[in-house]
């Protein structure tokens, strides 16, 4: 047992810090947009080799997950997840950015589809890879802080099944990545709120001095701390059960923490100029991905108490 | 107890529904996005409200001598339910009907009434509410905007924030400090085209023109714009807030969203999943709980019971109901949210994000419930 | 619409008050028991005609339910429910007290079985009535504040189906009665707790002056107020859907309110001498009856959004 | 990070399990009711603990010179998990191992250690903890029990309440006021058979002899019973409480209860109901969350990091986990609760009712998390 980050992980954080430091805040004056895609940050991460090119880093799964946590603390929408926790698990080099889907249904909006060069689809037991070069992609306006688009059509020969990989590997990598994206965004939204309630006064004292506010922020902090360890346990060689458990926990606690962050921010949190919604409206999207907390919890229970056990 | 509607109330609701069905265009949902501040809805309301007035449906509960129908508060409530259910085609004129008009009838001078009441009852005017300030949200005692005596009028300086409808409203129901103590507040009925008023829309998650900043720089107004006595604003606001807190039957949107959710889930073949059904039922219970707690307030108005902590109980129940439905949608209707095809579901999900913020934060409702309803000691 | 009690209902409350006033508190010094059956109160109610004898009251369903709310505010376990909201709905005079069951399974403990003369069983569509005269009944020690017992055996000729009544009528009356039993017990436990936190000091002030305590008690009060109206709407001619909705709401909010009552009472609430557990350990039993909040919520949803609707 | 056990830790756990399997009778569950204060378990512990000591399993983490195994804190934690999982067959002797012994080793005089340590390491003695008083629960500053200097000793007067194990313990780790200011508190190691001590069991929902009142009337003790300096009790208690707050891995009972629940649900044919599976998974996540947050504290002990708000985070997570599992049981295992056949399920349900009460109320954990972990301003 050792519950601290490893020295390698701390080195990784140091290595990424200068790059992330430039992307912790939205450009000022901020454009009041629902979605701000962090294309620059993505390109910089790619150029620095964090997505595991031939001469880049060869990150362990837990290190890639740690990176995702850090990236998700930036307010931008960055198409990093599939490249960090999914593609490496499949062991095949694919043009990135990569989008993920549970089906090829043209009605279902897919996160980062318009920003991606490859779409990976978990279809039954199979993983399909679609080269998006010639695909027709229709952007979908949503209320979330991620770009979504639908796949209207694609050349028949652009789709191929990936041999030797199982859809479960894709789903596990996806759920794990999703968990760390939630973790990072929760940290950022919660920290911003803690900071805000220290500054903002109502009834002649800091909002953060009200006990009811304190208790809800403390409960949120407890969940974020817990998620940190559940997520890392899942990342470091955790099996599908431990991944589903962490994903379920992450998704389950999004609504209350997001509600509290907005509640304690008052109307300020509703304005597009202010940064909060870039995290909370990512979180609202992530909380429903892969079926949401109940589906993931169910999966964890099935694996934990399978007939054999 | 009696939980049924009288035949007259049922007729009124049917009359309203029939009118709405005729008045709203077929593409209303898609074009309006149920967003009362959108240019489309505001423009629409400029025709819709006069038509509603012409039909005798706009102010059923107002006194007959002011053009109302003289009906009891239940008719007002039914009006609100039916309007809110279709995304409020009156746009922000609902405020006129709910509390601005009544405040003018109660506290306004003959001249003020002569000027404003016909505009309101004609359905042709928008008002905005100048309460919140950058350093005074729920805490009105911290109000900084000042109205200084100047000749036979006042000069107002300050800043309002989060003001809904400010960029298209004709008048502002404005609070300003007119004396040294924290309760020395007066209400002014300020034309929004008065020189010195500058409005900036703050783009928001809650819809178009729902939030603005309003800057007041040497805004000169005559004494005739002051509502009631100088420094008597606190009492006016207190009365107003009791009407405003449960002024709109917002739970009706949550109820409609659940109906839409049940329909979508049935189409998707997921309606029979036990956990989804259980979630639907529990969310519906939360919405009905809120509805009944609001009904109690209207019942109290019927009986001239002065409102107490029950108003705050109802207001807090609204936050609970909105969240119950919003969370259900977030978990089980992710695809419908992404597809944006069900405006009711989407609107409810968006509303749920800001429930418990307007009209006094949810936490303040709980403080009041604890202290005035449970009679617990002050916490600070 | 009229959300106040009717004048008949207020008269009923006045009529019952002197009787209930004698049973609002446990005898002192209290015997530290898990279960205190209010046999005296039951007999007094019976003698006063509240259970609807030939020359007693003929209570409407809503009035009977109101009475249950009042009875449940007494700390005693009183076998009143089936006589008040179930038997009248079936329209058949049966020896009372009456116990209710969902099956004749000898393994399942039944509330008030040992105190009853009749057992009503909702079996499929049928209602069975069992004369308990010759039955063998085994008391079951539980952690709840109601007496439970199992039905080990019974004479074959003691069981008969009730003609002309539907099991749904029984289940509706049961769910409705259960809802009012929860309502009354919640009121009593919550009021006791509000009173306690006004008296009890910690860190030099009343516990009830802490904002976090206030908010949780205020939220509990909101649920109890809401339940009052949901329950009465169901009682006054409400259909099965409205009954299930009220029952679901009642059962759903038991755990948090009960937890808070105990939490704010500290160790005092755990002592058998103190009255709190007589309500909370009834509530814990009632929250699981008839399947619990999810089963009732599901039923409400099925009825609300049936295919036809 | 590393979430695996070393081979030595695994061996130790296996060794423990094998010992427990041999030592506990076949009807242990039925006879003990997992109730550590029951006469059966207390009697059992009087043989069990010495046997545990003889096997070298009682105090693996204590220093070798005091009869311990010199092992690291993880071994202590594994011991706790395995013991708590079977309803704590050490009865209240777990307190000796967790914090009373360590406090004596750190603050005790040579004579005190010579008297007490062999009894503790031999597994033959019960202690109780005299902290709470009728008007001082979580608030030790309100302590009223006084120890007045009298010759070369003290006379103690006062009352303790909620004291676990008091009716069969040999010693009390007693707090009393020894000076005028609120921090002037000292610790006394008081033999329970000292004249003037009267004990009354308070029958409780949490099990036999878990709550008592202890009345102290002119209780004369020698100076040699005082632990540490006079008025130095506050520092001792602070250190002790950090050990006590997450002293016992109580989540393990919640984990076992969920295992039992899954088994019962499978037998009943309800395991495959989606909402039940989802509830099981979420409850398990809450339990694992608590376990990992406790692990962090042990990891901190390993690295000599002085404990901060993390301890309170872990303590609060225990309340959340206990409630998650308790609520799941209450809703889905009603019949199993009534039938009382599954002691693990029943015990967890009972424990959940009082979780967040012992060792500083859950609300106080949240206060500390807010103020020391999030660095929010004091709330009062």
TrEMBL record, chains A, C:
Residues 178-287 form the Acyl-CoA dehydrogenase/oxidase C-terminal domain. GO terms for molecular function: acyl-CoA dehydrogenase activity. Pfam families: Acyl-CoA_dh_1. Keywords: FAD, Flavoprotein, Oxidoreductase, Plasmid. Signal peptide: none annotated. PANTHER family: ACYL-COA DEHYDROGENASE (PTHR43884), ACYL-COA DEHYDROGENASE FADE28 (PTHR43884:SF20). This is Acyl-CoA dehydrogenase/oxidase C-terminal domain-containing protein. It comes from Novosphingobium resinovorum.
UniProtKB/TrEMBL annotation, chains B, D:
The keyword S-adenosyl-L-methionine does not apply. GO terms for molecular function: flavin adenine dinucleotide binding; oxidoreductase activity, acting on the CH-CH group of donors. It comes from the Bacteria. Keywords: FAD, Flavoprotein, Oxidoreductase, Plasmid. Residues 6-123 form the Acyl-CoA dehydrogenase/oxidase N-terminal domain. Residues 231-372 form the Acyl-CoA dehydrogenase/oxidase C-terminal domain. Its cofactor is FAD. InterPro entries: Acyl-CoA_Oxase/DH_mid-dom, Acyl-CoA_Oxase/DH_mid-dom_sf, AcylCo_DH-like_C, AcylCo_DH/oxidase_C, AcylCoA_DH/ox_N, AcylCoA_DH/ox_N_sf, AcylCoA_DH/oxidase_NM_dom_sf, Mycobact_Acyl-CoA_DH. One of its GO terms (cellular component) is plasma membrane. Residues 128-219 form the Acyl-CoA oxidase/dehydrogenase middle domain. Belongs to the acyl-CoA dehydrogenase family. This is Acyl-CoA dehydrogenase. It comes from Novosphingobium resinovorum. The lineage of its organism: Bacteria, Pseudomonadati, Pseudomonadota, Alphaproteobacteria, Sphingomonadales.
